[in-house]
Amino acid sequence: MRRMTRETRLSVDDFVYPIFVTHGRDVRNEIGPMPGMYQLSLDQLIAEVGEVSELGIPAVLLFGIPADKDPLGTEAYEPGGIVQEAIRVIKQTTPELMIVTDLCLCEYTDHGHCGVVVDDRVDNDRTLELLAKTATCQAEAGADMVAPSAMMDGQVGAIREALDSGGHEGTPIMAYSAKYSSAFYGPFRVAADSAPQFGDRMGYQMDPANLRQAMREIEQDIEEGADIVMVKPALSYLDVLAAASEAFDHPMAAYNVSGEYAMVKAAAQNEWLDGRRVTMEILTSIKRAGADIIISYHSKEVARWLASEE
After folding, report:
1. Cα separation of 46 and 29, whole Å?
2. What pLDDT was estimated at residue 264?
3. Mean pLDDT along residues 242-253
4. How far is the C-alpha of 59 from the C-alpha of 251, rounded, in Å?
5. φ/ψ of residue 177, rounded to 5
6. Is the whole model's pTM more than 0.85, yes or no?
7. Which CATH number is associated with domain 2-309?
8. Distance of CA 163 to CAs 72, 110, 156, 160, Å?
9. Chain-wide mean pLDDT for the chain?
10. d(CA 122, CA 118)
11. Which among 16, 232, 238, 240 is placed 20 to 30 Å from 209, CA to CA?
12. Distance CA 75, CA 53 (A)
């Protein structure tokens, strides 16, 4: 009876699996605060994306760990940058997978901020130029969709213009539209070595207390050409996700972020709760709140669980 009357159903088609790629060979470094997640070199990436594809997960989201960091995040927009190389590997080995690329500079800058820093502040407009350049570089390498996450004003418009003028009119944009300045990102910053070296990101990421501002941010991104809009994090912002899905007739993504993943894993390892049941409950709540797409580090294990229930 429960199965027959269930209102919200999770499917493997809902998920995008994040992957961290790095230089070198035979690199498979487990990320301490994110059990089961790894920094992978390109040779290790092949097996990983093969497994993702076999599980039926339709897409991956790539994050790059560069060989060197500098003030302008140069490797983000170099043709031979780590993400661009990862795209080519996936296209050669697992072409059926959709490749989404995170589009930000924080992993590539030595100061850890998401853009160009001038006088200890992020320069929005100078950053737009580099984000647009990075988007074009990723699209040329074969990215199926770009996902700008820097939260710079006007980033979607600048990226859309650059993609169109570069002959990539068909490359869609999934915008991190309502990205909050959250403590839930801590484990990710370990994974990507991207913690700010001074200050914080509150100058460009959203105040966790604000919902109406999120609606304005999402509306602006849609007007600038975003094909999919996102709320991040997911769990503490289900009200924002629900309000956005009600207000906008647009595909809605939610990011089940590293801190949310880490809390479940830590509690489950200590046998304080049932990890599988809690994971499924959390992800169901995200979909019930209105997410069409769920970016989650749980994607592979959830795909296995769902298959076992069929």
Report:
1. 15
2. 98
3. 98
4. 15
5. -80, -45
6. yes
7. 3.20.20.70
8. 21, 27, 10, 5
9. 94
10. 6
11. 16
12. 28
What pLDDT digit, counting tens, does each position of 133-183 carry?
A: 999 999 999 999 999 999 999 999 999 999 999 999 999 999 999 999 999
Residue type, 141: A
Nearest to 113 by CA among 31, 205, 191: 205
Contact between 86 and 95 (Cβ < 8 Å): no
Helices (H), the chain: 2-5, 42-54, 82-93, 124-141, 155-165, 186-191, 212-224, 238-247, 258-269, 275-288, 299-309
Structure tokens at 83: 């993400």
Helix (H) or strand (E) holding 20: strand 15-22
Q: Nearest-CA neighbor of 67 among 75, 56, 78, 79? A: 75
Give the separation between CA 21 and CA 102, rounded to whole angstroms. Answer: 12
Residues with catalytic annotation? 179, 232
Residues 6+ apart with CB under 8 A from 297: 17, 18, 34, 36, 37, 256, 258, 261
**Tens digit of pLDDT for each residue in 171-198?**
999 999 999 999 999 998 888 776 666 5
Q: Look up tokens 């994090």; give the residue.
A: 233
Assign 138 to helix, strand or coil.
helix
